[in-house]
């Protein structure tokens, strides 16, 4: 088996043309294009209506957050406490017994999936010494163990595993932290070395050492483990493309992450601080039971869905926000740099950069823990609908009126030229969930949903256009 493993962790055939991985039936609405300074992006191939689902996709990889893994299905991440009396049917992992599945269907689906908690991944994880590692580091090993096993499966001729490795390879990876910090420091005229990049490499070295030990312990060929460079690249891809999937709110209101999902097509969507899309998911959706339950239905509720917040004309780039919309400029800049390796130059950032500090405090609620939780849920951040992105509705048609002087016309197409404080505030009032501490995004329902309604992708709250207008009146 060892001889079948290619010398490179990623298949050589993998390259950056996203067209090869497109299988989504709604793809006719979308096209991939290069965006100067951003890499690839998704564009509207035709006029898109507010509320339309532009993309719906199953994950390429789905794995639990180590600290909460025992409370969620190790195949589909469904919360055991969402099952009601069916929770009695939870199937413990037959190998480690530490985690379980929400149904026999999920247990069987995981057993047959080299990228899930199958026997081989379970053995690798059980052989990994997790002592002294943070939750984040242990979760990184969940991801890396799945990658190792997918690679092994691809080497034994499993075409689906090879396709998944190719899709992983095609994901964008931001430059190494050292590179973009150095670039930032250069721009700021600082000669200070980026210490954090060194410690980060040391941490990855430590993780890789444990992974290699586990690979040996389970009798897999040493080449199954990635090199240090490949591991660093895998983790950068994971960081820039993984969507954090939120757990249901705890009784005390705390929201934690249940796991991470990586989607290949959704990973093509770039960030903008006033985006055109919102992400919805429904990880605790009603399970298909009885004879209809199959491996396919077991994971059906793990799909992510992106809906248009407003009308988008053909040719315009479709964007999402990688973190909650109300975040202040400084936090957005920091997150973009540190987690995704870019400086956001969107019209909102340009406009807010001109504001005085006092003027930018309107939406500054970053010390609010709920906002941080919501941030974790947003993309990659990792990432998503999670409610995060389990995102989901609005007053149809366009963004809020941009320039009253042109007759109150809604924004159409790029808004850069009309972006001002009034537009930004109106956009936030309209599309940020009004529920206290939620910070989700309000998007119109997918047709044929009720017109003039919006639905929050985090808490599921609904608001009508009339209610929005009344709230707007009340704030003035
Ligand atoms: C989830 S991927 C988005 C798709 C990516 N552009 C590609 O080519 O596959 C995230 C990465 O895209 C780039 N990116 C996303 N939004 C950007 C923006 N507003 N400006 C510059 N780069 C951006 C960054 O490199 C980021 O790490």
UniProtKB/TrEMBL annotation:
Biased amino acid composition, Acidic residues: 359-371
Family annotation (CDD domains): SET_SMYD
SUPFAM superfamilies: SET domain
Superkingdom, natural source: Eukaryota
Region: Disordered, residue numbers: 355-414
Gene3D superfamilies given in the database record: 1.10.220.160, 6.10.140.2220, SET domain
Residues covered by the SET domain: 25-323
Alphabetical list of InterPro entries matching this protein: ASHR2-like (IPR044238), SET_dom (IPR001214), SET_dom_sf (IPR046341)
Pfam families noted in UniProt: SET
Xref: PANTHER family: HISTONE-LYSINE N-METHYLTRANSFERASE ASHR2 (PTHR47420:SF3)
Protein name: SET domain-containing protein
Organism annotation: Chlorella vulgaris
Highest classification ranks of the organism: Eukaryota, Viridiplantae, Chlorophyta, core chlorophytes, Trebouxiophyceae
């Amino acid at each position: 088996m060892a001889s079948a493993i290619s010398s490179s962790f990623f298949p050589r055939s993998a390259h950056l043309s996203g067209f090869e991985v497109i299988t989504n039936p709604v793809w006719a609405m979308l096209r991939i294009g290069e965006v100067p300074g951003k890499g690839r992006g998704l564009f509207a191939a035709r006029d898109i209506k507010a509320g339309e689902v532009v993309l719906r996709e199953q994950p390429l990889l789905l794995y639990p957050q180590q600290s909460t893994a025992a409370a969620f299905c190790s195949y589909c991440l469904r919360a055991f406490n969402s099952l009601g009396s069916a929770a009695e049917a939870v199937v413990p992992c037959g190998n480690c017994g530490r985690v379980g599945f929400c149904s026999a269907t999920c247990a069987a689906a995981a057993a047959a999936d080299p990228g899930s908690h199958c026997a081989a991944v379970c053995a690798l994880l059980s052989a990994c010494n997790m002592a002294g590692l943070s939750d984040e580091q242990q979760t990184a090993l969940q991801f890396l163990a799945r990658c190792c096993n997918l690679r092994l499966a691809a080497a034994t001729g499993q075409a689906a595993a090879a396709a998944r490795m190719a899709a992983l390879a095609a994901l964008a990876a931001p430059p190494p932290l050292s590179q973009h910090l150095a670039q930032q420091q250069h721009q700021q005229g600082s000669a200070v070395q980026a210490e954090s990049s060194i410690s980060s490499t040391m941490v990855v070295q430590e993780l890789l050492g444990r992974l290699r030990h586990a690979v040996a312990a389970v009798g897999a060929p040493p080449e199954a483990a990635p090199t240090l460079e490949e591991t660093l690249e895998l983790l950068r891809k994971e960081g820039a493309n993984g969507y954090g999937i939120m757990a249901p709110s705890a009784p005390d209101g705390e929201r934690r992450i249940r796991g991470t999902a990586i989607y290949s097509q959704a990973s093509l969507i770039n960030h903008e601080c006033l985006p055109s899309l919102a992400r919805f998911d429904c990880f605790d959706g009603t399970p298909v039971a009885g004879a209809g339950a199959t491996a396919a239905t077991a994971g059906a509720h793990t799909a992510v869905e992106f809906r248009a917040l407003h009308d988008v004309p053909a040719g315009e780039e479709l964007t999402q926000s990688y973190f909650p919309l109300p975040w202040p400029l400084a936090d957005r800049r920091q997150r973009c740099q540190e987690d995704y390796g870019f400086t956001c130059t969107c019209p909102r950032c340009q406009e807010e950069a001109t504001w005085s500090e006092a003027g930018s405090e309107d939406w500054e609620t970053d010390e609010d823990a709920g906002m941080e939780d919501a941030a974790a849920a947003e993309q990659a951040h990792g990432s998503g609908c999670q409610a995060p992105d389990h995102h989901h509705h609005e007053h149809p048609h366009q963004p809020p009126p941009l320039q009253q002087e042109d007759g109150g016309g809604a924004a159409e197409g790029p808004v850069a030229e009309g972006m001002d404080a009034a537009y930004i505030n109106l956009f936030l009032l309209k599309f940020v969930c009004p529920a206290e501490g939620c910070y989700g995004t309000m998007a119109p329902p997918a047709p044929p949903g009720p017109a003039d309604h919006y639905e929050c992708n985090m808490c599921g709250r609904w608001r009508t256009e009339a209610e929005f207008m009344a709230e707007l009146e009340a704030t003035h």
